[in-house]
Specification:
2 copies of one chain form a homodimer.
Chain A (H helix, E strand, L loop, with lengths): L2 H15 L4 H17 L1 H20 L5 H7 L6 H13 L8 E8 L2 E9 L2 E6 L4 H12 L3 E5 L5 H16 L12 E4 L2 H7 L8 E5 L2 H9 L13 E5 L5 H13 L8 E7 L7 H11 L3 E4 L1 H12 L3 H6 E3 L13 E7 L2 H11 L4 E5 L3 H10 L4 E6 L16 E3 L7 E3 L5 E12 L14 E2 L8
InterPro entries (chains A, B): Ald_DH/histidinol_DH, Ald_DH_C, Ald_DH_N, Aldehyde_DH_dom, G-glutamylP_reductase_CS, Glu-5-SA_DH, GPR_dom
Catalytic activity (chains A, B): L-glutamate 5-semialdehyde + phosphate + NADP(+) = L-glutamyl 5-phosphate + NADPH + H(+)
Family (chains A, B): Belongs to the gamma-glutamyl phosphate reductase family.
Chain lengths: 455, 455
């Protein structure tokens, strides 16, 4: 089957999905969970095949140990976690069919703005095969059709998971209109470049993976991309910051999970904090947490004098900042440090070098905090809070589609709401535009109360 | 000044605009109105210069009369309309600073989702110079900086209008932080291609103009584009339609303003309507309104038999449909006609050939209407209503930024709400992620009542 045909099938499936009820969507999800359980052996066999092939690649030094580990869905409680993830999604509220505006345009013409699925999603991801299940269920719950493309290391697992999901959908009762083409998978890189051209059929691309994957996609499609390439988050320590909060937040933001996009990569320090022990306490907390500090001149000499000269282990971790460090997502126990004159310079630095993801200020001064949070252009602007909170589960969304650094549609951690848009539904009685306007019928434009909704 | 510098200035202006109050924005708009009035002579002089140059182009056959007419802002009440448009925008509610989510993540950690300006807009438009004023005011009211590029025929008028607006902004009292770089203008095509590359500084492109202009922009930038290239709207006459409504709606949708994007280009007719006089009545109404019908075989022979054979004028306007007619925006007194088996085929035709703009069904059957409105993938799905209602003013938005056929961010007629996005503001007390999770502190995720908002 051609990729064009597959994309067209996804579009047709998405039309069927428009009329599906929340109960039918949950029925499909629970059926998927059941069939995944029933076909556990098939899935594990496919996963073993991928792992065997990957093991050879690891031996040849062509695949990293951590990538190999992500490939595995058999060991520990990983498979159970995947299954419980499916039931969790059934418990979320239906993001579609919500009326967000209702206007009486005339006595016999009502206008409603109603949330609807975006349509067809294309998800491109790397090693973790559980994304097949997770994103398929998020897509179905929000009424979207989805085309999946996973990493080549997980080819067999991905294909089997997609097949099992399709079988589950095909086995739904006649009364449930969700077609199995609501979830489809492609395997080659050529398929992807063909799909990225099909803005006629595909409404949104949701990449999940490395910076380079996301950048490649952003540069090669006109379809809107929901996600983020970089996560360059900063913590700014203000002159009126609390020292305990400053140390705790800096350490947590950097070390709680350094590989996450919401980990801090830059520490901005008000110059006054170098006139006391304030910044040396924060520096020491970071050094004790095995963080390497890549410092500008003044912070390097301050920290060396306060900490480095008396301690070789510290000294080796107090390093000079290099070109590009303030634009680098280290994803490691490394943080770039810069001394700034004031909050204004901190904001400017972040707006110039940050990735509009999440930035935090540590201060006890509410006015300074508001200045920072208002002027920093980021999806998350935090006061005395670690950047690590930028996450759909922590925000209470129940599920996370991804974190977006876009300036349109959806921003920050994105839950199911990011997979819907709206349409206007007008209910008339033969109304024509020629009847309205100056000297003719006026528009009412009255809000319709929810109790009077009629759609 | 380089285009890069100009775009960077716009970005810096947009940061200043983040903290501006609604009163300050309205103060700026009223100041703009006042200075436009004061500098009316300068503006008319510039407009005369453009019109003189354009007149020569008209004589040489290089510019159409209608384009020349659009250029003129001196005659009639055009200038007054521009000025009253400015005061109208001051009366609209501020789309920013609205809290759309408020969650107590923990007793000492509050999370708010608050609407904020998108940032920097780039607007590219054609002959009408009033767009300079209109879009600048919409941008300012929504807290966005804007870079403008108009058509070359209106170069002098556009430049003068932008200069006057900048002068007005520069003359604001010290207390008003809106910088004059909030509105800037560029003049050359090279500037535009450079700006379309600057996704680092520009957040959204709002083209206003021809299909080819919009398509060019969509194909040449990674920046999100708000707008529509095509407006291929359809009216579907169902077998259970009311004949009076059918004729009125078909005629209004086609002829009320054929050059508009919300005019109908395709008429889909249930086959049963050819078994009676139903469709000949509709056809006659269209023919009487000087519409040419480009018909498929069955509708052509039906209409020819019923109307054409006895009337030469009718006959000449009943023509065979040609390749591509169902994908064409005629923008004229021409409509493509197709007979369909049922509502399902009508929906399929629209989803294949339409431009996701606005489509209408004429039927007295509520179930059929719901089927159509649910399954047609368009920004507007109408029941017994002319497609011509797809318009920001008719929807009651007070102003229209444009009509979007996008599937993300903003869809259909777009008011000021389409120029804002949101950010998350978190207010903590030194909260770190490491303190939460299984075996540690739980998340509350309680909604915060508006009366308890503290931000």
């Amino acid at each position: 089957m051609s990729v064009q045909q597959l994309a067209r099938d996804a579009r047709l499936a998405s039309v069927s999905l428009q009329s599906v009820t929340n109960e039918q969507k949950n029925e499909a999800l629970l059926r998927i969970k059941q069939v995944l359980e029933e076909r556990k052996d098939d899935i594990f066999q496919a996963n073993e095949k991928d792992k065997q092939l990957a093991e050879e690649q690891v031996k040849l030094g062509k695949l990293s140990g951590s990538l190999f580990k992500r490939l595995d869905i058999c060991n520990g409680d990983k498979f159970e976690t995947i299954l419980s993830g499916v039931s969790d999604i059934t418990k979320l509220p239906d993001p579609t069919k919500k009326v967000t505006m209702a206007t009486k345009v005339d006595s016999d013409l009502s206008l409603y703005r109603v949330t609807v699925p975006v349509g067809v999603l294309l998800t491109i991801f790397e090693a973790r095969p559980e994304v097949v299940v997770n994103i398929s269920c998020l897509a179905l719950k929000s009424g979207n059709a989805v085309i999946l493309k996973g990493g080549k290391e997980a080819t067999h697992t991905n294909a089997m998971l997609a097949l099992v999901i399709q079988d589950a959908l095909a086995s739904l009762p006649e009364s449930n209109p969700i077609p199995k083409t609501a979830v489809q998978i492609v395997e080659t890189r050529e398929d992807i470049s063909a799909l990225l051209d099909l803005d006629r059929y595909i409404d949104m691309v949701v990449p999940r993976g490395s910076n380079s994957l996301v950048k490649y996609i952003q540069n090669n499609t006109r379809i809107p991309v929901l996600g983020h390439a970089d996560g360059i988050c900063s913590v700014y320590l203000d002159k009126e910051g609390d020292i305990t909060k400053a140390a705790r937040i800096a350490v947590d933001a950097k070390t709680n999970y350094p590989a996450a996009c919401n980990a801090a990569e830059t520490l901005l320090v008000h110059q006054d904090l170098l006139k006391s022990d304030f910044f040396s306490k924060v520096g020491q907390a970071l050094l004790d947490a095995q963080v390497t500090l890549k410092c500008d001149t003044s912070s390097q000499s301050y920290l060396t004098e306060k900490l480095g000269n008396s301690n070789e282990a510290y000294k080796s971790k107090i390093q000079p900042v290099e070109d590009g460090d303030y634009d680098t997502e280290f994803l490691d126990h490394i943080i770039a440090v810069k001394v700034v004159q004031d909050v204004n310079e901190a904001v400017e630095h972040i707006n110039d070098h940050g990735s509009k993801h999440t930035d935090s200020i540590v201060t006890e001064n509410a006015t300074t905090a508001d200045f920072f949070m208002t002027r920093v252009d980021a999806a998350g602007c935090y006061w005395n809070t670690s950047t690590r909170f930028a996450d759909g589960f922590r925000y209470g969304f129940g599920a996370e589609v991804g974190v977006s650094t876009n300036k349109t549609h959806a921003r920050g951690p994105v839950g199911l709401e990011g997979l819907v848009i709206y349409k206007y539904r007008a209910y008339g009685n033969g109304n024509i535009a020629a009847d309205y306007g100056s000297g003719k019928k006026p528009f009412l434009h009255d809000a319709i109360a929810p109790s009077d909704y009629h759609l």
